[in-house]
Write a structure and sequence with these properties.
With about 425 residues, the chain is an alpha+beta fold. Helices cover about 30% and strands about 20% of the residues.
Length: about 425
């Protein structure tokens, strides 16, 4: 299932349905520092950051400048009623000072956020092309100093008119009650990840009743939250390790922990094209920055089957199987017709073999006319008691013992040493 955010398919009602029987079904009191995103333009050093679709006249009004002129970097005059464009120069004629305009998302400097900008942000994110300093600032949509998946997601969302790119003004303190559904929808908007995937990820990590990672009262780490178990490596003291990480990141409220944790999830995987849970665990995405296979954290090849079953049950339980969902269906070429499942048998035992055929008969004696004791499954492991127990019907027969203790015979051409 695709993990990218699609506002037309992913709704707050769908999130509420997922959360209905969990600790996140209600609201929580939030006190968090957030930044005002209602401003049209903001001066910062030698730059003026401008919200897309803003004219030069509106820029002047926002920064309270009456005597101004706008020109291109090559000194050509730009009309005051034209859209502000990245790289143009805003001149304060009263003090004869100049500022470079930066419109987040407008990387190529044509005054609009379009597919060409989308492609440039993606290429920069994957380290395929280099940008000059002004272009870098325009591509860094969220202003964190790096070009990452969250920037890529914001350009895409704005280009499709799903959300708007904004610039950050002064910080304010958010003090209010917010539903977990609203927080997760905000996390989806900020990260570009499906809110359904965010909700399911949290439930899988901390459980439907929550854990010490999200209680806010864990001894020694009161007031800190980690909804995705970032840093909580397997083994002893996993919760404490995760909360140490949360404290380092400043995740001291539920809102910040969920939103910033989702953005980290996006930047770690979605940024390199790994936009499904399967691709998180098995890196089959051949991108420029990482290549194939190494950017993953799963070693159990049977995990997709169990995870798919678990995910299906979670969706069924929360009545969202009939909601619109997006899927990525990869098709792999040149795959074998079948493969063996892993085995937990002790492969150091010299008498351990696995069955290399499908539907192979288990016989009561060393011949095809002997009574049938059933069939073997492909990959089933057995212990060989006698590898050459007789010859008949064109086969050499082996006496073997199944894991349930039953003994019998099989043509030894169907045996492969473990």
């Amino acid at each position: 299932m695709e993990m990218s955010y699609n506002p037309s398919a992913h709704t707050k009602a769908g999130v509420q349905s997922i959360l209905s029987n969990t600790f996140m079904s209600g609201s929580v009191s939030i006190s968090a520092t957030v930044e005002d995103t209602s401003v049209k333009a903001k001066q910062d050093g030698g730059y003026i950051y401008v919200t897309p679709e803003t004219t030069n006249e509106q820029v002047a009004s926002a920064i309270q400048m009456t005597n101004f002129q706008v020109k291109t970097s090559s000194n050509k005059s730009v009309p005051n009623n034209a859209k502000a464009a990245t790289g143009n120069i805003f001149v304060n004629k009263t003090y004869n000072t100049e500022y470079t305009i930066i419109v987040p998302g407008d990387v190529n400097g044509d005054g609009e956020v379009k597919s060409a900008d989308f492609a440039m942000v993606r290429a920069a994110m994957l380290k395929q092309t280099a940008l000059n300093n002004v272009q870098k600032k325009a591509a860094d949509i969220n202003g964190d100093g790096e070009i990452k998946a969250t920037d890529f997601a914001r350009v895409r969302s704005h280009m499709l008119r799903e959300t708007l790119i904004t610039i950050k003004g002064n910080t304010t303190t958010l003090n209010s009650n917010m539903s977990y559904a609203d927080i997760i929808m905000k996390a989806a908007e900020e990260s570009g990840i499906s809110p359904y995937s965010i909700a399911i990820k949290i439930i899988q990590e901390v459980g439907s009743k929550g854990s010490g990672s999200v209680s806010g009262i864990y001894p020694g780490y009161q007031g800190y939250y980690n909804f995705y178990n970032w840093g909580a490596t397997d083994g002893n003291n996993a919760i404490e390790k995760g909360l140490i990480y949360a404290k380092e990141m400043g995740w001291n409220n539920q809102y910040t922990a969920i939103v910033e944790g989702a953005k980290k999830l996006a930047d770690s995987y979605v940024s390199v094209g790994q936009n499904t849970a399967y691709f998180y665990k098995f890196d089959c995405v051949d991108d420029v920055s990482t290549g194939l296979y190494w950017h993953q954290y799963m070693t159990n090849v049977q995990d997709p089957s169990s995870q798919a079953s678990s995910l299906y049950n979670t969706y069924a339980k929360n009545n969202i199987l009939d909601i619109s969902l997006n899927f990525v269906i990869p098709v792999f070429n040149d795959m074998p017709s079948s493969c063996l499942l892993p085995t937990t048998i002790n492969t150091s035992n010299p008498n351990s073999y696995y069955i290399n055929g499908t539907g192979v008969r288990f016989r009561s004696g060393p011949s095809t006319t002997s009574g049938s004791l059933g069939t073997f499954s492909l990959g089933e492991t057995v212990t060989v008691l006698n590898l050459n127990a007789g010859n008949s019907n064109g086969y050499t027969w082996a006496e073997v013992k199944r894991q349930n203790g039953q003994t019998g015979y099989i043509a030894n051409c169907y045996l492969t040493k473990c």
